[in-house]
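pasting for ref. prot 1 ->
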Amino acid sequence: MIDPEVLARATAEVRRATGDEVIAEMFRRSMAENLPAVAERLPDGTTFVLTGDIPAMWLRDSAAQLRPYLLLCADDPALQDVLIGVLHRQLEYVVLDPYANAFNREPNGAGHTTDETEMSPWVWERKYEIDSLCFPLDLAYRLWRTTGRADVIDDRFKAAAEAIVELWTIEQDHENRSPYRFQRHDDRPSDTLVREGRGRLTRPTGMSWSAFRPSDDATVLGFNVPGNMFASVVLGYLQEIATEVLRDESLADRAKALKADIDDGIARHGTVDHPEHGRVYAYEVDGLGESLLMDDANMPSLLSIPLSGYAAADDPTYLATRKLLLSPENPYYYSGTHAAGIGSPHTPPNYVWHIALAVQGISSTSARERQRLLELLRDTTGGTGQMHEGFDVDDPSQYTREWFSWANAMFCELALVHAGVHAGIR
């Protein structure tokens, strides 16, 4: 799905930058195999993307898996068609149910059908996550700016964008305005919401509430700060598209106002004065005075703030937060004989995620750190040559998920960033 000449040039750049033939070959193979393994062009021109080993399409994962291809698609029209097809399928799903995070290829009723929420035959899972709605807007903006193609922003985009703005506005006051409820009756408390599906009590902050994290685990305090940061960024993108493409001043104004509310909420509620690190970002807050200092391997995370575009990699508050996250003060930071990095409550203790290691490299201002992390990724595949979800910091042969498309994509993005390959944003 990627032009062989485009891939050959990119691989040569990775080889030059890393001086490592194994890393270059892992990059070449992942880029050549990753997208064809998960993407299916449908008769209507859209593209359905499997989320690794699960037969459903997650809004978040399907966009995140495309990030390295976005860096190379400017000179590859056929690849652009595939990526635009992914966007258009995402937009159709958003209109079907903006609260859902994962969808079926067709309305076959597959998925978590016993969950107590408003399911439909199209929906695989209905865990509402604010970041699920950020990714299609981010993908639309990047494709529009990179390709300059008029067919990126079509009628589907406006309907989906209006649904997203409406939902995020409602969820600013979840307690009084939200119709969303979710319960799952299994043995994992992180799979369900307390208070008969409403989640823990929150008070409005200006930010928009989220039921679940990017890990698909339930939020603890309701307002996920990195998710709201990403929402702020993409609302800026939406304002730009609404103004320049859609010529819709009302939508642009709504996006601008909501972005201002969220930014104010992050400033007032989303930061904490830490006795050692100074002013840092919290991972979650509830508007009632509680805050959670941690980070999760899944993106958007606090570590990935520069990737979402909310703050630069050298921003003082980000750097202070980063120092805290990459230390034992983050309860999900693990260090062992083979690796150190951020894991997740979604996986066993002492398991670091390849995604988090890649994000650590991409968000670094140090070429030496990027090189070190690429070599660490190379050496912790458990002999498979593939990225995994999490792996044991003392024994990389112990891991979760044999093959994880999103993690492979993040490895490739880190390799491209290290090689100085950037998106051709116009």
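and prot 2 ->
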Amino acid sequence: MKAKKLDIVRFASKGKDGFYDTVKARARAYFDLHNISPYANGQMWVKTAVMLSLYFVPYAFILGDVAGGNVWIFMSFWFLMGLGVSGIGTAVMHDANHGTYSPNKTTNKLISHSLEVIGGYTVNWKIQHNILHHTYTNVSGLDEDIDTMGLIRLSPNQPIKKFHRYQHVYAWFFYMIMTLYWMTAKDFFQVARYRKFDLLVKQQLSLTRAMWQISLFKAVYYGYILVLPLVFADIPWYFVVGGFLVMHFTAGLLLSCIFQPAHIMETSDFKPPVEEENKRQMENSWAVHEIGNTTNFAPKNRILSWFAGGLNYQIEHHLFSNICHVHYRKLAPIVKKTAREFGLPYNEQRTFLKALWAHGIMLKKLGRMQPVPVKA
């Protein structure tokens, strides 16, 4: 079957492009002035060890039957593993897949495969996140981060259904099962879709090879995460299954609460492409589009920022995804000042709770507002 080409859009080449050139120059000047590398530092490597330990130490306790049959202690181990999954997702594999640990590609590639350890598939993640999400943030049909198969409406440019009226209530449940669906079925559907749109070519993969890889990774994952605890933990099987669900519910909700308030907000412009000379084109340049569809939150919360891999500085991450997240806090004032100079928005929520509340309000709004007509 011949692959189809993705119906991509082009970004405007004019406008406030001076913003991106200026902010990049100022970021380079910051690193030169302080004589530091934009890659991982010692703090990042310590965090990596902590996040991996948060996942593997409780797992070792489960296999070692440290709980001694106490259900609450047993479940607490799974809960900690859920925190570990979230931490690895935001603060370990995320940076590695963006190539920001080291200028050495082998180092980044090795650490990036921590995603397979927690049940994912690196190839799919890079296509969905690095290529589609970071290029076409909030563009319906291209940014798969806002594609929920119609269950949740995350853009005013998507069709509306009657049940969306209640999505601000039920969306949190689907957020909880996000990683469970991802680690079980999503990768298979996703890689087939990427083959259809010829997105596996740059990864030097055939669909058959990708399917075999995913099947192998999933078999190993479910083998060690479920089968081994069922064999070695001296506790009824249903508590093992329950603990596994606790881990995924914890990770899914945490990851969603970190990523969703970064883009699905009332301040995001969600501008769709327009048809110009038989081509689909965005009104703004890429950098202006990104800053208009992204929101920071809780900039003064050092603990949250540490655990969330600096992704509360989502604006800095989208503009500088090639820089390790440990530097975002220092880059944020530079980006904010430059954005203001160029008359651009710098969307920011003061606290994490306010960001979640604002996201909930946006979910409610999206569940009621009619689709925005696309300008021709």
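The two ends are 33 Å apart (CA to CA).
Strands lie at 274-276, 279-281, 296-297, 348-349.
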